[in-house]
Design brief:
The chain is built from 10 helices and 10 strands. It starts with 6 loop residues before the first strand and ends with a strand. It is α/β, with parallel strands linked by helices and 282 residues long. The protein has 2 domains: 63 residues, S-adenosyl-L-methionine-dependent methyltransferases, CATH 3.40.1630; 194 residues, Vaccinia Virus protein VP39 (Rossmann fold).
Length: 282
């Protein structure tokens, strides 16, 4: 069963006025408990600390999570993702090919990234010129995602300006758009593409070890069994909302997402993954 992970906000340097002030602000904004004593007198049931430093935010596993994830800081790092060199842009092509189409029919447009996670694919699509509305419903992931956006924006303001991050449930937005289809929505534009990267199913038979960042995301988002009803709703509403297509990221040999709802018209393969492409039914 999914449960919230007990997480505290903690200034990295307990004597820094800046870090203390920012920690207090974040704790109030996200309704999270504050811990100001470093690792001393730490709640034995705590699982993560969101450390506030002058450089930004990072996640620190503690207590039981320390054994699972190790002691190194965990945070989304868009700046280190190579999307500007020739090699980096070539490596990103499976995702972009699935979004644009083989004939590059979609050169520009608004993409709704309904499952942002650590935001790697959001950043790649923005680097290729697309405008993104990226949704993340988990507030801990969103907080770290927002910090990654701010840090990347200092280095690459033009790319980051194409991204709009929201701490919301994609299902709620899709339902709102479909129910209010006859009314013009100024707050939330209709997307040309809906992109879904749902959590891949866990398996004890994986041939390679799962990356620490992916394992951490799985723990934060929840490892509950597949919610087939939610999956079906997400795909069905996405098909009715997208202007041109829906793209779903899957394991290379994995089953289709919500396969009873619709079948993809084609697939684009990458290393260990594939992108199932569905035509909009709007």
């Amino acid at each position: 069963m999914y449960r919230k992970r007990k997480t505290y906000i903690c200034p990295e340097d307990g004597t820094s006025d800046y870090e203390l002030s920012r920690s207090n602000k974040i704790a109030r904004e996200f309704d999270l408990p504050l811990h100001v004593n470093g690792l001393g007198k730490l709640d034995p049931e705590a699982e993560f600390l969101i450390m506030v430093s002058k450089q930004g935010l990072y996640l620190k596993p503690v207590n039981e999570m320390l054994a699972l994830l190790g002691s190194k800081p965990i945070y989304p790092d868009w700046i280190s993702t190579d999307v500007f060199s020739a090699a980096g842009r070539k490596a990103s092509q499976p995702l972009i090919k699935a979004i644009r189409g083989s004939k590059k029919s979609l050169q520009k447009g608004v993409i709704l990234d309904g499952t942002a996670g650590w935001g790697d694919d959001t950043w790649i699509m923005a680097a290729f010129g697309f405008s993104l509305i990226s949704m993340e419903r988990n507030k801990i992931v969103y907080l770290l995602l927002r910090d990654a956006y701010a840090r990347a924006g200092m280095r690459f303001p033009r790319t980051s300006s194409r991204i709009r991050l929201l701490n919301m449930d994609t299902l709620d937005i899709l339902q709102s758009l479909c129910w209010g289809a006859e009314h013009k929505n100024n707050f939330f534009p209709w997307p040309d593409v809906v992109y879904l990267d749902p959590m891949f199913p866990g398996s004890d038979k994986r041939k390679t070890a799962e990356k620490k960042e992916s394992k951490c995301l799985r723990l934060l988002e929840g490892e509950a069994q597949c919610d087939s009803e939610r999956e079906a709703q997400l795909l069905e509403l996405s098909l009715h909302t997208a202007g041109t297509k829906v793209v779903v990221k899957r394991p290379k040999n994995g089953s289709r997402y919500a396969e009873k709802v619709a079948a993809p018209v084609h697939q684009v393969y990458g290393k260990g993954i594939r992108f199932d492409v569905y035509m909009s039914s709007k």
